Amino acid sequence: MKKFLSMLLALVMVLALAGCGGKDNTPAPSPEPSTTDQPQEGGDAAPAEDWHIGIITGTVSQSEDDLRGAEAIQAKYGEDKVKLATYPDNFTEELETTIQTIVNMSDDPLMKAIIVNQSVPGTAEAFTQIKERRPDILCIAGEAHEDLPVVGASADLVCNNDFVSRGYLIIRTAHELGCDTFVHISFPRHMSYETMSRRVAVMEEACKEFNMEFVLETAPDPTTDVGVTGAQAYVLEKAPEWIQKYGQNSAYFCTNDAHTAPLLQRLLELGGYFIEADLPSPLMGYPNALGDLDLTAEAGDFDAILAKVEQAVVDAGGEGRFGTWAYSYGYCLSAGLAQHAINVIEGKSEITNMDDVAAALQEYSPKAAWNGSGYTNADTGVKEDNVFLIYQDTYIMGNPGRFMGATDVEVPEKYYTVK
Question: For the CA atoms of the chain, what is the radius of gyration?
Fold first, then answer.
């Protein structure tokens, strides 16, 4: 037995020496760093810090707040991390350019998320193309102009203003302020959108509840040949007729950003109420309506912006008649959705967690309350898991101004099926 064990031990030593002799003990060279953060076949994903995000918005002339919010995120993280682009003002006529502008962002191998705000027609198709070539990229739509189920099918996340709740709450607020008539101003393209057509239906139904007259008026579409200038000139001309016709206790609402400034200008001059803009902000229409109010020193500070706008409104005789969201919706949506995307990329948030979305928005609106819910298709009753409807409390400017507590109001259930 001892002889056998000795032979076995010797055999093991021989084999071990043979194995060592066949091995190069020189340290292996480190692998070359990858030029992209794409996971290599059979390997691990790149470090979380190796990311880019892209934000596409309208231009200053069509949606300045959206662009400024994107610029704020770029300033925070740097131009090397955050890439910006704008789609054409006449996006309805330049659909292919719009689509290509969005899709081009996915050419960047480090791109991890693409946010479009506002998500004009063509966004759903652009996201579909991106997902076909780069399924790893998060596609996020802010304020979609296309049907929400369509956009939701190609996007990872969609956030829109809560057109159902706001349709009721805007009318309720107008009633609380003493208005007896509500005038809705729009044009056929906008009324073809589910979000806006359903909101009109809710507004009309709410007017019945509060014994108010509901009126539809039209104004030119700024994306047509008349352009922004022609559309604004029309509102400047027609608004005095509307105010004279519907009286001092009438409240007004327009679905297009370009219409807002001339409408506010006439209401400040001639009377009437304005609860909040379609996409509310202290910057939405007010500076121009107030004689090109200089807000250079307050840029990016919405507490200071609101205070200066509010004082100018009071000085112009508009106390208690004009409202807004204290923090720009377009600004918060661009910046908040981009921040949410970064949080998801870095593993701090989940893409369709409403609390995570709200927390990112809150970073850019610290003093205002938000509310929201999941979107339910009125035709099918299906609730979309990745489509959220959100809104901020309404602020009425005065001396002092006041939040109306709109985010605490329970909207009657019947309005969620009105269409």
Answer: 28
DSSP-assigned letters across all residues of 24-77 = --SPPPPPPPPSS-SPPTTSPPPPTTS-EEEEEE--HHHHHHHHHHHHHHHHHH
Find all residues with CB under 8 Å of 188, minimum gap 6, and list them: 221
The residue behind tokens 């004279």 is 244
What is d(CA 237, CA 14) in angstroms, rounded to the nearest whole number?
Answer: 102
Helix, strand, coil in percent for the chain, rounding step 5:
45, 20, 35
| Identity of the residue numbered 316 | A
Measured in degrees and rounded to the nearest 5, phi and psi for residue 337 equal -70, -35
* pLDDT for the residue 49: 67
Which residues does 230 contact at the CB level (< 8 Å), separation at least 6? 220, 222
Amino acid at 220: P
The pLDDT tens digits of the residues spanning 46-104 come to 445 689 999 999 998 878 889 999 999 999 999 999 999 999 988 988 999 999 999 99
pLDDT in tens, 151-209: 999 999 999 999 999 999 999 999 999 999 999 999 999 999 888 999 999 999 999 99
Alpha carbons 275 and 14: distance in angstroms, whole number:
90
Report angle CA 199, 354, 136 to the nearest 5 degrees. Answer: 105
Question: Given this model, what pLDDT does residue 90 score?
Answer: 85
Phi and psi of 85, rounded to 5°? -155, 160
Burial of 168: CB neighbours in 10 Å, binned 0-12, 13-18, 19+: buried
CA distances from 184 to 55, 187, 222 (A): 31, 10, 17
